[in-house]
What does this fold into?
Amino acid sequence: MHAVGTAAGTNITSIATVNYSIGGTPATITSNAATVIVGELVNVTMALQSPTASVSAGASNKALLFLVTNTGNSAEAFTLAGDSVLVGDNFDPTPASPFIYFDSDSSGDLSPADTPYVAASNDPVLAADGSVAVLLVNNIPTGLPDGEYGRSELTATSKTGTGAPGTTLPGQGSGGVDAVIGTSGGQAAVFGQYLVGDILLSAVKSQAVQDPFGGSQPIPGAAIAYQIVVTATGTGTALGVAFNDTIPASTTYVAGSLRLNGAPQSDAADGDAGSFALGPARVAVTLGSLTSAAGPQTIDFRVTIN
Amino acid sequence: MSNRTTVLRLAMLAAALGGATTALAQTADRGCIELKTVAEIQETYIDARGNEATRLVPAAKVVPGDEVVWTIVANNVCTTPAGDVAITNPVPQHMRYVGSSAFGPGAQIVFSLDGSTFAAPEALVVAQADGSNRPARADEYSAIRWVLPRPMGPSESLMVRYRATVL
It folds into this structure.
């Protein structure tokens, strides 16, 4: 369901018209104006924005990013709460202090500019369809083996009220209209996870120049073949690995030259892992989850010297 | 539902909605047809036998996503038949027509995209950016018209109905 509907307190009015004729004389009559009043819909959704966070045992201040959205039809205040003692995981992350921050600088991660959340003091007030980015910050216990998952959950609760969908809260809406609890029940909760690993990524870049005369001089018209080898070493899984490289100044990317482990990649951002984009000119390859067992990942592309 | 029960329910509804004002009928400035619009919502309840059933209750409050059942009742309060009867109802602001929900016993139902020209659903098209036309969707209708192909007799009442969702 998509957000934001007709504003609470709106009157919806309908008037019908009938045309007819009596003995050939036309006439028109309108009906009464039937009106219904739109009440306040209390609804909230939450989405986890960050992928599973790769952490090492003993790490501190590791953030998970959530987006809380008011999908009701009126401004609504929410209280936030975090919980790191959840079932279904291998360990319990330790809530940092403070535990919950607003991602004030929209960096997607914890940074000095971020404002801590203090219940009843700076509860977020979201306009209809408005949203706020929230960070849940945990420390990772020491001594955890690689490959273990820990979960942490954020809950946003409407201050107008909660309850079974359809519950009416008489007069509790903005401007004194009735508030009705939407499909969310007035509350949303989503968990994110931490994955313990001790893994290191390395990338080694090499180049080979071939000039138009069969030599290896970097002169205009010469081609440079770049090769980047990405290797994961250690234990655990590196998540969401992405390779990006800017095409050097005074060179031009050779269309269709991008390869991953020898397999040609189309330049378009599409189903395959590789893509080329302008502004600035760059290549990107999505490598996804890497373990040391995956072995080296070889990326090739070519440019010509202008 | 059989036709028989439909007719019975129509008659009961007409009596309930239109009966009280019949006394005002037949004055020249009020015309020969009385028209009344009612907004209701369908409510689920448990009947006397413990079964789940639905009924229409006045739409006191709605929220986005709710469906409102709009009922329009026309009564011919004159002693002469009325011809060329057509009831027109714009889909209210902040609402979207629910496809296939319009009905009216014996009436031809036509729709409008612009509120002034009416046609059967298959004749309504929307021009696209590339110059071609596509069939209009029900949620694009801006008005509904019920055309009665026969005269409406004295004391006869006609009920038409459609549903629309609160945006």
In short: The mean pLDDT of chain A is 90.
